[in-house]
Amino acid sequence: MSATISKKIFRTLAAAVSTAALAFAAACGTATTNEADNSNTGTTSSSDITQQTITPGKLTIATGDPAYEPWVMDNKPESGKGFESAIAYAVAKELGFDESDVVWTRTSFDAAIAPGAKDFDLNIQQFSVTDERKKAVDFASSYYNDTTSIVVKADSKYADADDLDDFKDATVGAMVGTLAYNDVKKNVNPNVQTFNDDVALAQALDSGQIDALAVSTVEGVYMVQSEQVKNGKVLGRIPGSEDPNGMGILLPKDSALTEATQKALDTLKDDGTLKKLQDEWLAEYTTDIPELEVD
After folding, report:
1. Concatenated DSSP letters for 99-142?
2. Is the pLDDT of residue 71 over 70?
3. Where in the chain is the domain with CATH 3.40.190.10?
4. Is pLDDT above 90 for 268?
5. Contact 73, 82 (CB under 8 A)
6. Which residues, in sequence order, are bridge partners of residue 62?
7. Rounded to an integer, what distance in angstroms lies between the CA atom of residue 204 and that of residue 60?
8. 219-258 pLDDT per residue, tens
9. Which residues pair with 33 in a beta bridge?
10. pTM greater than the 0.90 cutoff
11. What architecture is the 148-237 domain classified under in CATH?
């Protein structure tokens, strides 16, 4: 065989080998890209609820600022002390999060129930579950059914009132958007003065801006005990004011955690944990409160 022919054969074989190598490299490159794409989609962890949160692996829970006793003790939800704080950690455990994986943040009541994006996975701050609110957010309910009570100054002309009719001409205040506001407007006096938070509400009663305030019974007892309302008195519960839907944990609309959170609460009810936490944190706030009369 001539040298010229041998060189042609060699060049042909070399080209074939080079083409095959390029094809192999391209195939490998394609596989690597696909693998990277798959890892970024989160497909492998789609069934892991702990990876469906705002920060994967962490559970961001919001509460009020400040958060009041007995829902949260000493305004420190991270302590796990207080009824809602304890529930939050119990739910987190059922969802598969360790205590160290829970991250707390603060929101106002109004911002939490408003439509739009949220910076939390769960929010717990005595939200009554309503159909109107369900249009903007999700709920997992309920962990407690509270009532509405009226608080007055112990030295006011209403201190001995025992009938709702006594408040027909009174100036009664309530926090905007709450069940207490609805209860007062329907059963006591339609001219309700509204306030954005419990601090402003208590200050209004202290300063004489209002004659009485309406608030959840548990919160009313705390206001008096803590002297948030100085020389205050929980006059009594509004008849028929027990929240039929209860307080629910709030989640962003169409949250991937809603169903799992509801299941977690169901488990805590069934195994007696919720009752145990109620007895531990709420007993002293719900006993010996009379019910007001209504004509």
Report:
1. GGGEEEEE--HHHHHSSS--S-SEE-S-PBP-HHHHTTEEEEEE
2. yes
3. 50-145+245-286, 148-237
4. yes
5. yes
6. 105, 123
7. 33
8. 899 899 999 999 999 999 999 999 888 999 999 999 999 9
9. none
10. no
11. 3-Layer(aba) Sandwich (3.40)
